[in-house]
Amino acid sequence: MKVCIAEKPSVAREIASVLGATTKRDGYFEGNGYAVTYTFGHLCSLSEPSDYKPHWKSWDLNNLPMLPDKFHVKVSDNEGIKKQFNIVKGLFDKAEVVINCGDAGQEGELIQRWVLNQANYKGEVKRLWISSLTTEAIKEGFNSLKSSTEYDNLYYAGFSRSIGDWLLGINATRLYTVKHGGHKQVLSVGRVQTPTLAMLVNRYKDIENFQPQPYWELQTLYRETLFSYEEGRFLKMEDGEVLAKKVKEHDFEIVSITKKKGTEYAPKLFDLTGLQVYCNTKFGFSADETLKIAQKLYEKKVVTYPRVDTTFLPNDVYPKIKGVLSKLTNYSNLTSSLLNKKIKKSTRVFNDKKVTDHHAIIPTGMQTHLQYNEEQVYDIIVKRFIAVFYDDCKVSNTTVIGKAADVNFKTTGKEILSKGWRVVFDTSTSLSNQKDNNLPTFTKGEKGPHEPLFLEKQTKPPKQFTEASLLRAMETAGKQVDDDELRDLMKENGIGRPSTRANIIETLFKRKYIERNKKQILPTVTGIQLIDTIQNELLKSAELTGTWEKQLKDIEKGKISANAFIKGMKRMVDALVYEVRSEKVQTRISAVNNKTSEKKKAKSISKKTALVGRSCPKCPSGMLLKGKSAYGCNRYGKDCDFTLPFSFGDKKISENQYLRLLDKGSTVNLKGFKVDGKSIEGLLRFDEAFKLKLEPKQAKIEAGDTCPKCKTGNILKGKTAFGCSNYKTGCDYRVSF
After folding, report:
1. Are the C-beta atoms of residues 693 and 687 closer than 8 Å to each other?
2. Looking at residue 623, what is its pLDDT?
3. Contact 274/381 with Cβ under 8 angstroms?
4. Which one of 42, 355, 557, 677 is least enclosed by Cβ atoms within 10 Å?
5. At 466, which helix (H) or strand (E)?
6. Do residues 442 and 574 share a domain?
7. Are residues 140 and 190 in the same domain?
8. Which domain holds residue 106?
9. Are residues 735 and 716 in contact, defined by beta-carbon separation less than 8 angstroms?
10. Where does a domain end: 144, 175, 193?
11. Which of 458, 484, 503 is a domain's end point?
12. Do 21 and 103 have their domain in common?
């Protein structure tokens, strides 16, 4: 009998169905010469400290460091897990061959190897390695099974990672808890979580301690186009004032006009981090939510394996592309033009050197009913996939240089000549050329009057981390990298793996080291105190943790031994324990009053930009001024009529509310508006002409209500928002929680 072992019951069911093992037994499926069983994730784990030495159970500084000579694995102490393990062991005892069908990655390999070792199985082991759960992929995988020994290095890397986390996590957590914990506060310290927390704390402190510095900008308005001083900002007001007075006395002259055609490439295919970043920014999903949704899509067979760190496809996938596109019938309006010609093959998409265990996340071609949140994630995966096979977007970039006296000014504009891949993401029906910041037609040598502007501004602090920006920072070990190509090169030294980063962030939330403030992630008092207390810089170093990740990948590639990595970790833990035990400082940390202070919150609020000096939202060349009864555009009375009255509907509107309106599209719900003599609560928005309109407060929305937009659908409740049941047929009504 051939015994297959998968990582989840749901995956085992899919494999069993393809193999013809259709008889359901207790803990496995059977038939056609196969038994297909499963784990529930980790059935086994590393032994606890007390399993090595009974006195290690006590949290005592004298017991540290705990450095076992050899690490042992045991079956988890849970009745359900023990029962399933015994079922698996019984099947192994009868097996002629075992086929490891665990998730095709480091963690999946580790989970199943531990079970095989604990069951003391000595027979032949084969490895199933697949990137999707479609029937075709499973059949292909079973037709090309490989020897398990080909994946030994993958197992050694997973085992080394687990040991490294045990060594540092258990020793450092006990060390800092006993030395610095108060009120029964456990101070959890980890190989990845501590440098991640340190990044958050350092950013928070940078913002709190930020001292804004004034600077000045010289601009001028010519033919309704804003030109900026070519050499940038001024750090001394008097330097800029001299030039401002000088240019005011001369006409503006166009010196040169340069047009340069350019190419914009389609966004890269998704790796897991890229998908999590996009979904956090676009939909507000946490990294953990996105990972769970992507895993469900994988198990529903509609996308490929999601826990990946590459944005490329191998060349052997290219022949299958047309077949996948043809099966995406729900997107036929986008795929039909591709299917009528040869599919484009670009090295920006297909690159064998950039693909290791798995390729980028793409659709399989299968389609099924999905829940609202699943549909959102699936839709963007599909559109990214389709877009990379479209033509590149062609643009024309225009740079215009002008001068007044001998002072040069510059402005730029862009015109989209051919949309190419942009069509995939365009919600409008028109495919005509799109213009972005298109400039008037200037002629070299033309002259005319202009309006110089000399503006005082202030430097701004860095932004607090969101989950999206934190994931990117973990990917690059804290280095600020915006370029996709450079980011790809740095992934080997990132903090954690794509599949574990979401869990690290969730762990920091659970331990109350960090908290959410809308989209921002802020450290709590306990989190800040812990990082302040840890004097050992290596323990907080994102770069060191990135180096460890590189070493683990080198173990996977067979470049270094697991033994060398583990010895290095032991040396660091030994030195850390000696250092902290010798510290004389006795800081005591507890989770009491674990909130950022009101004083600090007030300080951050005071940093909001004022309305005066803001760009006019209606005309791109104007800026806002304060009048006697309203804020208004400095172009008012010429070619712009934008105003923000101090009062609306007999209610005074504060500057902060108008700031929110400009930043987020609406004020909050406000009480006291008067309409037809009645008092109304509601919020203010702009209409299409940028005039204020009052939107009365909506009645409470509940699942099952009739959709207020299309009047035919019913309201559904998702994880983060209410939406209309007719979303597939075009109704985009959605209200975030």
Report:
1. yes
2. 79
3. no
4. 677
5. none
6. no
7. no
8. 2-144
9. no
10. 144
11. 458
12. yes
* pLDDT over 70 (residue 585): no
Strand partners, 331: none
Three-state DSSP at 15 gives helix
Q: Are residues 543 and 529 in the same domain?
A: yes
Q: Which of 487, 470, 486, 468 has the alpha carbon at shortest distance from 542?
A: 470
User: How far, in whole angstroms, is CA 310 from its chain's centroid?
Assistant: 15
**Residue type, position 25, single letter:** R
Is 590 among the domain residues?
Answer: no
Specify if 663 maps to a domain.
yes
Q: Contact 60/28 with Cβ under 8 angstroms? A: no
Q: Give me 178's structure tokens.
A: 């006993």
DSSP assignment of 179-235, as one string?
Answer: HHB-TT------TTHHHHHHHHHHHHHHHHT----EEEEEEEEETTEEEEETT--BS
Q: How far is residue 234's CA from residue 215's CA, in Å, rounded to a whole number? A: 6
Whether the CA torsion 76, 82, 86, 88 is positive or negative: it is negative
- 405 and 439 inside one domain: yes
Q: Residue 155 falls within a domain, yes or no? A: no
Euclidean distance between CA atoms 403 and 213, whole angstroms: 28
Helix, strand, coil in percent for the chain, rounding step 5:
40, 20, 40
Residues belonging to the active site: 305
pLDDT digits (tens, 9 = 90+) for 238-256: 999 999 999 999 999 999 9
Same domain, 108 and 61: yes
Q: Tally the domains of the chain.
A: 6
Neighbour count for residue 687 (Cβ, 10 Å):
8
